[in-house]
UniProtKB/TrEMBL annotation:
GO MF assignments: 3'(2'),5'-bisphosphate nucleotidase activity; metal ion binding
Organism: Mycolicibacterium madagascariense
Pfam families attached to this UniProt entry: Inositol_P (PF00459)
Keyword vocabulary terms for this entry: Magnesium, Metal-binding
Cofactor(s) needed by this chain: Mg(2+)
Binding site for Mg(2+): 61, 83, 85-86, 195
Swiss-Prot/TrEMBL GO biological process terms: 3'-phosphoadenosine 5'-phosphosulfate metabolic process; sulfate assimilation
Protein name: 3'(2'),5'-bisphosphate nucleotidase CysQ
Keyword Endoplasmic reticulum annotated: no
Length: 248
Protein backbone atom coordinates (compact mmCIF):
# COMPACT_ATOMS: atom_id res chain seq x y z
CA UNK A 1 0.00 0.00 0.00
CA UNK A 2 1.42 3.38 -0.96
CA UNK A 3 1.65 6.27 1.49
CA UNK A 4 -1.10 8.05 -0.44
CA UNK A 5 -3.38 5.04 -0.16
CA UNK A 6 -2.61 4.61 3.52
CA UNK A 7 -3.35 8.25 4.30
CA UNK A 8 -6.69 8.00 2.49
CA UNK A 9 -7.64 4.73 4.15
CA UNK A 10 -6.77 5.82 7.67
CA UNK A 11 -8.49 9.20 7.35
CA UNK A 12 -11.61 7.51 5.98
CA UNK A 13 -11.66 4.79 8.63
CA UNK A 14 -11.11 7.29 11.44
CA UNK A 15 -14.02 9.26 10.00
CA UNK A 16 -16.24 6.19 10.03
CA UNK A 17 -15.27 5.60 13.65
CA UNK A 18 -16.24 9.17 14.48
CA UNK A 19 -19.63 8.80 12.81
CA UNK A 20 -20.12 5.77 15.04
CA UNK A 21 -19.24 7.83 18.11
CA UNK A 22 -21.82 10.40 17.05
CA UNK A 23 -24.51 7.72 16.76
CA UNK A 24 -23.52 6.03 20.00
CA UNK A 25 -23.45 9.26 21.99
CA UNK A 26 -26.28 11.11 20.28
CA UNK A 27 -28.00 11.53 23.64
CA UNK A 28 -24.84 12.34 25.60
CA UNK A 29 -23.62 15.83 26.39
CA UNK A 30 -21.73 17.75 23.73
CA UNK A 31 -18.61 17.67 25.91
CA UNK A 32 -18.81 13.88 26.29
CA UNK A 33 -19.25 13.42 22.55
CA UNK A 34 -16.32 15.70 21.71
CA UNK A 35 -13.99 14.07 24.23
CA UNK A 36 -14.86 10.56 23.06
CA UNK A 37 -14.33 11.54 19.43
CA UNK A 38 -10.91 13.07 20.09
CA UNK A 39 -9.69 10.16 22.18
CA UNK A 40 -10.97 7.28 20.06
CA UNK A 41 -9.86 8.71 16.73
CA UNK A 42 -6.40 9.47 18.14
CA UNK A 43 -6.04 5.96 19.57
CA UNK A 44 -7.10 4.43 16.25
CA UNK A 45 -4.65 6.45 14.18
CA UNK A 46 -1.73 5.89 16.54
CA UNK A 47 -2.31 2.14 16.60
CA UNK A 48 -2.80 1.93 12.84
CA UNK A 49 0.32 3.94 12.02
CA UNK A 50 2.38 1.92 14.49
CA UNK A 51 1.24 -1.24 12.73
CA UNK A 52 1.50 0.00 9.14
CA UNK A 53 4.58 2.24 9.36
CA UNK A 54 6.41 1.20 12.57
CA UNK A 55 9.59 3.05 11.68
CA UNK A 56 7.93 6.44 11.18
CA UNK A 57 7.42 9.21 13.74
CA UNK A 58 3.97 10.68 14.41
CA UNK A 59 2.86 14.17 15.43
CA UNK A 60 -0.76 14.25 16.57
CA UNK A 61 -2.86 17.04 18.00
CA UNK A 62 -4.03 14.72 20.75
CA UNK A 63 -0.52 13.68 21.78
CA UNK A 64 0.83 14.88 25.09
CA UNK A 65 3.10 17.91 25.17
CA UNK A 66 5.99 15.58 25.96
CA UNK A 67 5.20 13.39 22.95
CA UNK A 68 4.99 16.42 20.67
CA UNK A 69 8.38 17.63 21.87
CA UNK A 70 9.96 14.20 21.32
CA UNK A 71 13.18 14.84 19.46
CA UNK A 72 12.69 11.64 17.45
CA UNK A 73 10.42 13.38 14.98
CA UNK A 74 12.88 16.27 14.49
CA UNK A 75 15.60 13.90 13.34
CA UNK A 76 13.28 11.53 11.49
CA UNK A 77 13.08 11.42 7.71
CA UNK A 78 9.38 10.50 7.77
CA UNK A 79 6.77 12.01 10.10
CA UNK A 80 3.01 11.54 9.97
CA UNK A 81 1.18 14.72 10.99
CA UNK A 82 -2.40 13.97 12.03
CA UNK A 83 -5.42 15.70 13.44
CA UNK A 84 -7.77 12.92 14.55
CA UNK A 85 -10.71 15.33 14.74
CA UNK A 86 -10.44 18.76 13.17
CA UNK A 87 -13.45 20.84 14.13
CA UNK A 88 -14.32 19.29 17.47
CA UNK A 89 -16.90 21.98 18.07
CA UNK A 90 -18.73 21.18 14.84
CA UNK A 91 -18.45 17.43 15.48
CA UNK A 92 -20.23 17.94 18.78
CA UNK A 93 -23.18 19.55 17.01
CA UNK A 94 -25.07 16.69 15.40
CA UNK A 95 -26.51 18.75 12.54
CA UNK A 96 -23.13 20.00 11.24
CA UNK A 97 -20.96 18.40 8.58
CA UNK A 98 -18.03 20.87 8.49
CA UNK A 99 -15.48 18.81 10.44
CA UNK A 100 -12.68 16.56 9.24
CA UNK A 101 -9.91 14.04 9.85
CA UNK A 102 -6.39 14.93 8.68
CA UNK A 103 -3.61 12.48 7.87
CA UNK A 104 -0.44 13.81 6.22
CA UNK A 105 3.09 12.55 5.65
CA UNK A 106 6.13 14.82 5.83
CA UNK A 107 9.29 13.37 4.34
CA UNK A 108 12.78 14.84 4.04
CA UNK A 109 11.66 18.46 4.30
CA UNK A 110 8.21 18.64 2.73
CA UNK A 111 4.71 17.21 2.63
CA UNK A 112 4.54 14.23 0.27
CA UNK A 113 1.10 12.73 0.93
CA UNK A 114 -2.12 13.72 2.62
CA UNK A 115 -5.80 13.03 3.01
CA UNK A 116 -8.71 15.02 4.41
CA UNK A 117 -11.79 12.97 5.25
CA UNK A 118 -15.11 14.77 5.52
CA UNK A 119 -17.06 11.95 7.14
CA UNK A 120 -20.42 13.69 7.52
CA UNK A 121 -20.20 14.68 3.84
CA UNK A 122 -19.31 11.14 2.77
CA UNK A 123 -16.08 12.09 1.01
CA UNK A 124 -12.30 11.93 1.33
CA UNK A 125 -9.90 14.13 -0.61
CA UNK A 126 -6.49 12.50 -1.00
CA UNK A 127 -3.23 12.83 -2.86
CA UNK A 128 -1.78 12.21 -5.39
CA UNK A 129 -4.73 12.83 -7.71
CA UNK A 130 -7.07 15.62 -6.62
CA UNK A 131 -9.40 17.22 -9.14
CA UNK A 132 -8.97 20.94 -9.69
CA UNK A 133 -11.98 23.05 -8.69
CA UNK A 134 -14.51 24.07 -11.35
CA UNK A 135 -14.29 27.56 -12.91
CA UNK A 136 -14.53 30.40 -10.41
CA UNK A 137 -17.55 32.68 -10.22
CA UNK A 138 -17.19 36.37 -11.00
CA UNK A 139 -17.46 37.28 -7.31
CA UNK A 140 -14.77 35.49 -5.24
CA UNK A 141 -15.92 33.64 -2.12
CA UNK A 142 -13.69 33.99 0.95
CA UNK A 143 -14.23 31.21 3.48
CA UNK A 144 -13.93 32.23 7.15
CA UNK A 145 -14.72 31.02 10.63
CA UNK A 146 -18.37 31.29 11.55
CA UNK A 147 -17.45 33.05 14.80
CA UNK A 148 -14.29 35.11 14.31
CA UNK A 149 -13.26 36.05 10.76
CA UNK A 150 -9.78 37.64 10.82
CA UNK A 151 -9.42 41.25 9.78
CA UNK A 152 -7.10 40.26 6.92
CA UNK A 153 -9.83 38.06 5.43
CA UNK A 154 -12.23 40.98 5.55
CA UNK A 155 -9.60 43.13 3.81
CA UNK A 156 -9.24 40.49 1.08
CA UNK A 157 -13.01 40.40 0.64
CA UNK A 158 -13.13 44.18 0.23
CA UNK A 159 -10.20 44.30 -2.18
CA UNK A 160 -11.54 41.51 -4.37
CA UNK A 161 -15.18 42.59 -4.16
CA UNK A 162 -15.95 39.19 -2.72
CA UNK A 163 -18.38 37.64 -0.29
CA UNK A 164 -17.83 35.69 2.92
CA UNK A 165 -18.69 32.02 3.34
CA UNK A 166 -18.84 30.88 6.97
CA UNK A 167 -17.61 27.41 7.86
CA UNK A 168 -16.21 25.37 10.74
CA UNK A 169 -12.95 23.42 10.74
CA UNK A 170 -9.76 24.35 8.91
CA UNK A 171 -9.89 21.12 6.96
CA UNK A 172 -13.43 21.80 5.82
CA UNK A 173 -12.45 25.33 4.78
CA UNK A 174 -9.52 24.19 2.64
CA UNK A 175 -11.65 21.38 1.23
CA UNK A 176 -14.27 23.94 0.23
CA UNK A 177 -11.67 25.70 -1.95
CA UNK A 178 -10.59 22.38 -3.47
CA UNK A 179 -14.23 21.48 -4.16
CA UNK A 180 -15.06 24.88 -5.65
CA UNK A 181 -17.46 25.88 -2.88
CA UNK A 182 -15.13 28.77 -1.97
CA UNK A 183 -12.18 30.43 -3.70
CA UNK A 184 -9.94 31.84 -0.97
CA UNK A 185 -9.05 30.81 2.58
CA UNK A 186 -6.99 33.29 4.57
CA UNK A 187 -6.21 32.59 8.21
CA UNK A 188 -4.21 34.82 10.54
CA UNK A 189 -5.35 33.76 14.00
CA UNK A 190 -2.73 31.08 14.52
CA UNK A 191 -2.97 27.33 14.04
CA UNK A 192 -0.75 24.31 14.51
CA UNK A 193 0.88 22.00 12.01
CA UNK A 194 -1.83 19.34 12.29
CA UNK A 195 -4.49 21.92 11.42
CA UNK A 196 -3.14 22.49 7.92
CA UNK A 197 -0.63 19.79 6.91
CA UNK A 198 -3.08 17.38 5.28
CA UNK A 199 -5.31 20.13 3.83
CA UNK A 200 -2.27 21.85 2.31
CA UNK A 201 -1.01 18.59 0.79
CA UNK A 202 -4.43 18.03 -0.80
CA UNK A 203 -4.70 21.65 -1.97
CA UNK A 204 -1.29 21.48 -3.64
CA UNK A 205 -2.29 18.27 -5.42
CA UNK A 206 -5.32 20.14 -6.79
CA UNK A 207 -3.08 22.88 -8.16
CA UNK A 208 -4.02 25.52 -5.61
CA UNK A 209 -1.73 28.20 -4.19
CA UNK A 210 -0.56 27.62 -0.58
CA UNK A 211 1.70 29.87 1.48
CA UNK A 212 2.05 32.05 4.54
CA UNK A 213 0.24 35.38 4.26
CA UNK A 214 3.54 37.09 3.36
CA UNK A 215 3.96 34.65 0.47
CA UNK A 216 6.70 32.59 2.13
CA UNK A 217 6.53 28.78 2.13
CA UNK A 218 4.65 26.82 4.77
CA UNK A 219 7.05 24.59 6.72
CA UNK A 220 6.25 21.47 8.70
CA UNK A 221 7.86 19.20 11.28
CA UNK A 222 9.39 22.19 13.02
CA UNK A 223 10.50 22.33 16.65
CA UNK A 224 7.78 24.92 17.23
CA UNK A 225 4.60 23.45 15.75
CA UNK A 226 2.74 26.78 15.77
CA UNK A 227 1.77 28.03 12.28
CA UNK A 228 0.79 31.71 12.58
CA UNK A 229 -1.07 32.10 9.30
CA UNK A 230 -1.73 30.70 5.86
CA UNK A 231 -3.33 31.33 2.49
CA UNK A 232 -4.98 28.70 0.30
CA UNK A 233 -6.58 29.99 -2.88
CA UNK A 234 -7.09 29.52 -6.59
CA UNK A 235 -3.79 30.21 -8.38
CA UNK A 236 -5.31 32.93 -10.54
CA UNK A 237 -6.26 34.86 -7.38
CA UNK A 238 -2.94 34.43 -5.56
CA UNK A 239 -1.31 37.68 -6.65
CA UNK A 240 -4.37 39.77 -5.74
CA UNK A 241 -4.77 38.02 -2.39
CA UNK A 242 -1.07 38.33 -1.46
CA UNK A 243 -1.06 42.01 -2.44
CA UNK A 244 -3.54 42.51 0.40
CA UNK A 245 -2.16 40.07 2.95
CA UNK A 246 1.47 41.16 2.67
CA UNK A 247 0.49 44.76 3.25
CA UNK A 248 -1.94 44.07 6.08
Amino acid sequence: MTDHELAARLATEAGELLLGVRRELADATVAERKDAGDQRAHAFLMQALAAERPGDAVLSEEATAEERANSKRLSAQRVWIVDPLDGTREFGELDRDDWAVHVALWQSGDLVAGAVALPAQGSTLATPDVASPPPAPVQPRIVVSRTRPPAVALAVRDALGGVLVEMGSAGAKVASVVQGVADVYVHAGGQYEWDSAAPVAVARAAGLHTSRIDGSPLRYNQADVFVPDLVVCRPELADAVLAVTTAH
